[in-house]
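Internal QA ticket QA-208
Title: Verify multi-chain structure generation after dependency bump
Assignee: T.L.

Test input:
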Amino acid sequence: MNPFDVLIVGGGIIGAVTARALSEYDLSLGILEKASDVGTGSTKGNSAIVHAGFDPVTGTLKARLNRIGNETLEPLCRALHVPFRRNGSLVVAFTPQDRLELERLLDRGRQNGIPKLALLDADALHALEPALAPNAVAALHAPTGGIFGPYELTVACAEVAVANGARLLTDCRVVGIRPDPAGEPAPDGARFTVTARTHARDGSLVEETYRARFVLDAAGVFADDVAALAGDARLSIRPRKGEYLLLDKRQGTLVSHTVFQAPGPMGKGVLVSPTVDGNLLIGPTAVDQDDKEDTATTAEGLAYVLAQARRSVPALDTSAVLTSFAGLRAVSSGHDFVLEESPVVKGLVLAAGIESPGLVSSPAIADRLVAVLADAGLPLVRRADVRMDRDEPVRFRELDDAARARLIARDPCYGHVLCRCERVTEGEVVDAIRRPAGARDLDAVKRRTRAGMGRCQSGFCLPRVLEVLSRELAAEEETLTKKGPGSSLVDGRIR
Amino acid sequence: MSAAVHERFVDVAVIGGGPAGLSAATNARRAGAARVLVVERDVRVGGILPQCIHAGFGLHEFGTDLTGPEYADRWTAAAAEAGVEVLLDTMVLSLGPDPDGGGLLLSAVGPSTGVLHLHAAAVVLAMGCRERTRGALNIPGDRPAGIYTAGTAQRLTNLEGLMPGRRIVILGSGDIGLIMARRLTLEGAQVIAVLEVLPYAGGLTRNVVQCLDDFGIPLRLSTTVVRIQGREHLEGVVTARVDADRRPIPGTELEIPCDTLLLSVGLIPENELSRDAGIPLDPATGGAVVDETLETALPGVFACGNALHVHDLVDYVSEEAAAAGKSAALHARAVSDAASGALRADPASAPAAAPVASSAPVRLASGPGVRTVVPQHLRRAAAAGLPLVDEVKVRFRIAAVFGACTLRLTAVSADGTRAVLATARRRRAVPGEMEDLGLKGPALAAARAAASIEVSVEGDAHG
Amino acid sequence: MDEFRTVTCTVCPMGCSIRVRLEDGLPVAFEGHQCKRGPVYARDEVLDPRRMLTTTVRVCGSATRLVPARTSAVVPRDRLMDVMALVRGLCAVAPVEAGQVLCADLLGTGVDLVATGSVPASPPATPVSAPDRKEDSR
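Actual output:
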């Protein structure tokens, strides 16, 4: 097999956005993703915030790329029909000490070049957000703050990259990266042999090898391990767990801004924010751990989040909780993004330590990674035959009746509402499966369509989505999974 | 199919073709409504009944012990015979006053229906209920495969023929959970335990005996799940005993390896349509606030079945829905009489299309020992075209297990004077069963004259 | 020597716990019941407990895979698992009508297995829209 020009390890937001950016050039691209779908690691367990950029230490990559990304993320989301809303953010102060903290953030924000920052007094603040606790005395208002859909962006970018010819290899966990001796390109032009572990049809584990000229390490919390496999052991990534609660849409309009708490001796506080889908999100906790795959919520964590969120918004209805989840931030020992060719292993490009504000910075990170690859010797020749946007996915719940009638006349599948809570039609599920980088399991359908995200949490639509997946993938229902190998939904047939 | 929005006009539109919808529609026809249409989102009528293959249905309505599918078939036949029209595979997306007239407008979609604007003189809400989920309980842990609500597992097993798992723990001792314990045991699964956070079983005694005791399945009371184990697939649960306030007691944790957790932890009336239409809901029942005709605060919209409040027996759903259907038919008649009268007479003197109560209604309130009451209001006087009903059934749920006790309806006058309107004695009463008390004749007249009515239970509460 | 058994009565919601005294395996005395139906129930429950069985049967020749079914009368409780083993091997050929006997005289009990639903004969369902799967590199 011909080697990949660039083999990206990790199909999270960084891997996907960079794959899309690279797919504009005449390159052979591969993405190795250990899970059954893109965007299932840190990309899906976070606050989904478009940070304004006043928080990162001035002069860091984080500060610079956050500012740029805050501007470029919006047009990228628009082009890819990914939900994005610039709802503005507030950092709320409850004490005189908090107020000093706001001034420090304002000062840093100005140094970072963040526009339109303003301190609000209590009156202005409560006029803006009536549900805030009465003892909120001031806030830092950042109108450029926003919210978006991180895994939607990841799916969209993967889709564009695959449509442009990239190969997405899911269920592929990289277990070996062998640079060729002396770092000299072999006759096929490749420098690396990459070994990945995947499940065979019978469920057993098998290893596949791939050849690559450049390896891009975008492995999130595993970025240090992946770099070490290639021979660069300098990185250290420690996962930091954040637990969240997602609330019913009834609570989704409780606040309109993303409400942070002023950081203090007790930590960074928790945020209360609407989501682009109309729910309310509260969280996170921040607990360092060693296990890079432990995303379990805890009784203590959830209780803490609820208590802290009610400190900001006392009217929060705790009975409206739909679900809870946890994600891991990839905290690097250097506390800044690492975006460079490894000084130790030629051809290994690192995208490591991508913690907050990594999501908002992702377009700027991708641009920088493309530049790093070019500097390292990757020839970039633009293709004329590529498309960098995608067809807009149908969102039935947002259409008016006339548009619905036209759609159903074209394809009756769009008249069949599978998910009653989020009003997702069979047509949307079929489309999510058939698109490039399409859904292969229940959770992948959920992330693309929202089927199962609502009040009944898939109780009603699960059998119906299984039926469509079974038909579209020509797979027996009993072989379908929630999220890839090991997560089978049923244990065979009763008859 | 054309790409246009279709328009239809009916007298009574019934949302949902489950037991409530079928009974409401059948009885609307029997009460004289000409065009009665049931809009059902599934490809068959019956609602939840087709997956309830067990017996225990119909003892009150038909005097015989039927399975769910049989009970549904009887009502399907009755609806067909009464001349009810059914629109399958069609989901109602919105409901509200008709901007083009005095009635109501529904918007519905379906693969062969397309987009339908359904104009109706009266609407019956019969959407049923949904199950409470893990999120509502906030059980910590990861989100692995293998966690289902009992009703979803029942559908997978009985309609799809898929086995949810082999080593099963059930949280919640509601009837669906108990029924599924037996069902899955018969299919070869090992049901390790049924856990109940309360100190008593939620389901019927008969089901505890025949679904658990018969198969040696332990029922652990005052016990809950405090942690989910497993990342990709469920590997086990950690249980703990709870104190009187339902808080887990440290040190009582027990790890149970299992591949499936079924949740049977309560039902929630489905009222997204009602809520979007601005219909006030009762926080205690989760359903619409209604009067004794089962009319909601939106004139011409009636509610019944599990969409109104969660029932214990389907027979009572059918009975209640019959009343809602009849009320809807009467309302539709009043609307059409008013419209034809308006053509002949001076518009200013025409009767109002929607009934208007002559004064604020009587409120029925939960008193000591009572959790929910339906209806929440009683009319004081007849409205245009709608005579007062001569018999009212007050349905309610009590808040705890009682031994010998007295159920009571008490009229409270403006000056605080109390007068007992109706009582019933029970040797035992449990929250899992719906209670009712009837009002008619002088008691009903007294009730309509009261400032408010209190529903209460008096006796020895066991917890 | 006397033997005791405890039976939970299921005749009404009271759920009386009835203590039954047995002599030579036969019930002779009852206590704990609050009405006269209790001892009748407890006697049957001790001597010959029987249950209705409801289940599903595989259907061939239809897009619908299963038909619900029940026993025509109660069967001995200790034969339930044996009957289920038999049911698992059954296959009804569509069309099936409600009330149709799917298996007569289950294991010599004299009780039949009867369909409680109908399944029309039909070809397997076809997708609503024809698949025109896009090229996928996976």
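Spot checks passed. The first helix of chain C runs from residue 37 to 47.
Status: verified.
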